[in-house]
Design a protein that fits this description.
Layout: H1 4-58, E1 59-61, E2 76-81, E3 86-93, E4 98-106, E5 125-126, E6 134-142, E7 160-169, E8 174-175, E9 179-183
Antiparallel strand pairs: 1-2, 2-3, 3-4, 4-5, 6-7, 7-8, 7-9
């Protein structure tokens, strides 16, 4: 037989062990959910980047889209295909969030509008789902001027575009690590 004190001590020890085990189990479930969400966000980011890389392969950086230089407008990335159609990507920041928009296959004699609100414009389509938003997004185009068109900057340097973004993790208001890729268009406009 056991005394009443021994039974109470054993019950208390078992209770403490059970509480600790349940806390560890809940923590592991929470970490698993966070990992799944990060994987989903990374998958979304890969889809955006894939679309941008495919567009870069089919066209050249459209330097004529930029008012002065690509550095002055780091939220736009413009391409023009050999057939003349234009595709532009835009990290647009409204009052509450940043989203990625696309103006695709715009006619040869026109330019995607950049002074409109893409949330209401028919020319622009939001690429990211409502559940995904960006903490930041920007494009870096190098060189800053078209290397084959400007007589003052003639060079054999091929234009490249770099995309840098961070996704928002909705439930926690945390941000993903920086996601970055650099692409080189296959077509050079001379």
């Amino acid at each position: 037989g056991f005394t009443l004190v021994e039974v109470l001590v054993a019950t208390m020890v078992i209770s403490i062990v059970m509480v600790l085990a349940s806390d560890l189990f809940l923590l592991s479930l929470k970490n698993q959910d966070a990992s799944e969400q990060n994987l989903r966000l990374e998958s979304e980011a890969r889809q955006f980047l894939t679309r941008m890389v495919e567009t870069a392969r089919e066209g050249a950086i459209d330097y004529s889209f930029y008012s002065s230089s690509p550095d002055a407008e780091p939220y736009f990335l413009a391409f023009r295909t050999l057939s003349g159609t234009q595709t532009v990507f835009w990290f647009y920041t409204s009052t509450t969030e940043t989203n990625l928009y696309i103006c695709a296959d715009y006619p040869i004699d026109q330019t995607c509008p950049k002074t409109v609100d893409p949330e209401t414009s028919t020319e622009w389509a939001q690429m990211n789902a409502e559940s995904v938003s960006f903490a930041m997004g920007r494009f870096i185009v190098s060189p800053d001027t078209a290397p084959y068109l400007s007589s003052s900057t003639l060079s054999d340097e091929s234009p490249v575009a770099t995309v840098v973004m961070q996704l928002m993790i909705q439930e926690t208001d945390a941000v993903s690590p920086f996601i970055q890729t650099t692409m080189t268009p296959r077509i050079y406009v001379r």
